[in-house]
Design brief:
The structure is a homodimer. Chain A is of the alpha/beta class. The first copy, chain A, contains 12 helices and 12 strands. Chain A binds a DNA duplex through α2 and α4.
Chain lengths: ~350, ~350
DNA sequence: CAATGCGATGGTAGCGCTGTCAATAATTGT
DNA sequence: ACAATTATTGACAGCGCTACCATCGCATTG
């Protein structure tokens, strides 16, 4: 314990084994499968490790064993707090396991994703979690030939590479619009930013719900590929209302936009929900606190992360799920912003 | 398991070299230092790599070379959007380099941090970026004996392990309070959540500024170790106003709390800034959009990440900065919530 | 023209660890 | 008690790559 961490000392497993009076392979087993050692040797190796301050060389371990204990996670964005919750779920459940997480982000670029997957392929991870189902052909090929379990998260679709944990963005969008229609609103605007594939599917849900009610009108839709901000919500709303002044509700593809719309309404003295209903998506924490509280579609992000990592770890260890596709659904959180004024 | 394709056999560098008609070491150089090859051989190796679909084995590379091209990043939280911006800066500047980022989070636990550092030590990263200056003794020892450049970010202090990029949270807190005092406010409340070391230093700045004006009063302070949320801002504000009804301003240690306070004021019909000034910290994007717009202390998070990764990469490649400590400062963003009503 | 320098290339040896499987010790059943 | 079985342990042989140094040939120099 009092021994200084050596700067120059090359302590290898061999040195540990020598001090403990066992063969190197036995010392190796001490780390991989301690139960296979007799109590006496286990203790001797243990104290030799401590005394020498032995630090295993992961590269050598990986080379010799053809395995690593790293699970790769590929997400589009770290700035988008939606993924923060997913990651929390992933980390929470990975921490009691032997596996460590290697996280990369693609900034919503499928080319960047491909590059990251190529890197992961060279690292031979024990498992892989990727976001969504819209990979390049090359990425898809890498995933399919990857010699480890793979989970696709955030949405569900046909033909999973391996496992899939998510929900239907289409259904969620459709459900949100159905709710607004039930409130008697007819001119429901759509505000979209970034327009990644999942947002696109929410739009499809909006469009089809509006069409089913014979209320779809392109003038109700304002989108941009610019990344989402609260401020952008206000800007898009201003564009929308300039184009189509008679709207009585807005569906925003995420909560940041919805908050921006609320602020813009306050600025313009438009009463919410009196003159304008607002519905967001994701149900971030602040939605319930806003004044008025904001309706949103709750997505089970933490659970998505938790299930994904659990399923991947189980698969690594040979416990394959009986059902590779897991639909975690969504919940409509109906609040003041989309219901009749109570006071 | 993602199913395997055709049994393609193992493609090693040897196979590539054979096909290209060169020695393995020349093929190896193709990856590490292509300029050292003659044009003819470079092209032969290049096409052999493509033809065989060669994927380098990073573990073997690391074992043989005693190096990796991974830079480890240790942050306390992925949920806290403050770090998202730092990470954006890190990723932006790392992407045009050869290095890849390995990210871990400690959930504000210095024990978890120690565990992550132990893992990194075994991986021999090319560089390391850690958050803050409050490590355990063991963590500190690991950092000091780590055979690679180390950057501590988010704050500055004495005795850096190696490099340090941040700003003074104490000064920032002090400056925020000075501004509020200049507006003529006297009963300035303090709302704090999580109370990690950096938040604690912001409090110190608040306390000393208040004491300097002979206005410090423990009844003005409400803190909790619970993680921050917008909703919590409202709750803490309610506690504060119940305890000390005559406050005329609130300094929140972060912007989420400040937004929660704004909502709570709206709920209670307390006019902002008329009856209550609000000042946040970090200047998240939504602060400027809120109604009224919210004053905050802008911290240069993106720049912090960018400088940290740049300095680490430079140090890896032998270009040590002449000054290891970089103070990126902060800016007070004065907005409606802390200034006299204009209309 | 020999001496010198240097760019391009290859041979030799491992890096530190673990898979395989055989060898030995301990335990059990009948 | 003795064979059969099961726990422990060790010897060997690489994993795929690169550091190190030697070598070769060609251009430059006086």
């Amino acid at each position: 314990m009092a021994r200084k961490p050596t700067k120059s000392g090359k302590i290898r497993l061999t040195e540990v084994a020598k001090l403990a009076g066992v063969s190197p392979i036995t010392a190796s087993r001490f780390f991989r499968n301690p139960d296979a050692l007799s109590l006496a040797k286990r203790e001797r190796v243990d104290s030799a490790v401590k005394e020498l301050g032995y630090v295993p060389n992961l590269a050598a371990r990986a080379l010799a064993s053809h395995r690593t204990e790293v699970i790769g996670v590929v997400i589009p964005s770290l700035t988008n707090s939606v993924f923060a919750d997913v990651l929390r779920g992933i980390y929470d459940s990975s921490e009691q396991s032997r596996y460590s997480i290697q996280l990369t982000n693609t900034r919503y670029s499928i080319l960047q994703e491909e590059k990251m997957l190529r890197l992961f392929r060279a690292q031979k991870p024990a498992g892989l979690i990727v976001t969504g189902i819209n990979q390049t052909a090359e990425s898809r090929a890498i995933l399919e030939t990857m010699d480890c379990p793979v989970a696709q998260i955030m949405e569900i679709g046909d033909s999973p590479v391996d496992m899939m944990i998510g929900f239907s963005h289409y259904d969620a969008g459709f459900a949100a619009i159905s709710h607004i229609l039930e409130q008697g609103r007819r001119r429901i605007g759509f505000l979209g930013a970034r327009m990644d594939p999942r947002v696109q599917r929410r739009f499809d849900g909006y469009r089809d719900a509006m069409k089913a009610a014979s209320l779809f009108d392109p003038n109700l839709v304002v989108t941009t590929t610019v990344p989402t901000t609260v401020t952008l919500g206000g800007t898009l709303f201003a564009d929308l209302i300039a184009k189509t002044p008679d709207i009585d509700a807005v569906f925003c593809v995420n909560d940041d936009l919805a908050l921006g719309v609320l602020f813009e309404c306050q600025r313009r003295q438009i009463s919410v929900p009196g003159e304008m209903a607002i519905v967001g998506f994701n149900d971030l924490e602040f939605m319930a606190s806003a004044v008025p509280s904001l309706t949103s579609v709750r997505t089970n992000r933490y659970e998505m992360g938790r299930h994904a990592i659990t399923m991947v770890i189980d698969a690594i260890e040979g416990r394959r799920p009986r059902e590779p596709v897991l639909d975690l659904g969504f919940q409509l959180m109906i609040r003041e912003s989309s219901t009749p004024q109570t006071a």
